[in-house]
Amino acid sequence: MNEISVGQQSYLNMHKKHKRIVRVSRVAILLSFLFLWEFTANVGIIDSFIFSSPSKIALCFWGMVLDKSIFVHIWVTLYETIISFLLVTVISVMIAVALWCSKKLSEILDPYLVVLNSLPKSALAPLLIVWLGATKTTIIVAGMSVAIFGSILNLYTSFTTVDGEKIRLIYTLRGNKWHALTKVVLPSSIPAIISNMKVNIGLCLVGVIIGEFLAARDGLGYLIIYSSQVFKMDWLLMSIVLLCIMAMGLYALINLVERIYLRRF
User: ABC transmembrane type-1 domain: from which residue to which, for each copy (predicted)?
Assistant: First the structure.
């Protein structure tokens, strides 16, 4: 028992050491990049007007914090992303369920879903503006269009690959399709749904930014396109950094949901 206990402790120590090395290495790479960027901009190796620098970006952000304008842009993009993400999640699950319930419907719609998923979504954004106008609804729909078709296909594939023996057992016990769906298919597909959500949150953010490029008067996408037009590179790079932070935060939120689910079930 003592040898096993010592071995387990040794393994745990090695695992902790590995995780610590990974964290430190990540931070070191980021800090090295920021230092090199700042140094080369200050000594003139790169043009600080075009490439900006971490200190200029930080000062630009602080200035927009003081006048509170940055919070409007962050909130607008975050709101549009979350709404489009929630709608994509709900609608894709509902349509995937409908396709699973009706094999005939799935055979009819499958080629259309594949074609719609392969369309370049940036080409749809101008068309959506003509149809819906330059409103937040258009931007939310643009965010949905990037993720929804692939999400439906992935979820439907997950539903159809659930263990067939369990479904047959439901029918053997005189259950119906509703019982098979609620007792087997959906519970077995929750990990796939969560994995799909991880992908969709990033895709919805991309779609929202595409929509804001064309149809917004506020938001980080609008800030990016406006700053590129007037050559305010500090604003542009600051907006990109904020988008990266937002994407990481939303992804971490989905990870938290996944951990809570795994602990409970």
Answer: 74-254
Give pLDDT, residue 44: 84
Which structure tokens are listed for 167?
Answer: 């479904």
Helices (H), the chain: 2-43, 48-51, 54-66, 69-101, 103-118, 121-132, 136-160, 164-172, 177-180, 186-215, 220-229, 233-264
Name the 3-class secondary structure at 1.
coil
Looking at every residue in the chain, the average pLDDT score rounds to 87
Grouping H, G, I as helix, E, B as strand and the rest as coil, residue 134 is coil
pLDDT at 1 over 50: no
- H-run or E-run covering 90: helix 69-101
With contact defined as beta carbons under 8 Å apart, do 185 and 159 qualify?
A: yes
Two structure tokens written together for 91: 């609608």
What is the tens place of the pLDDT at every residue in 151-188? 999 999 999 888 878 888 888 888 888 888 888 888 88
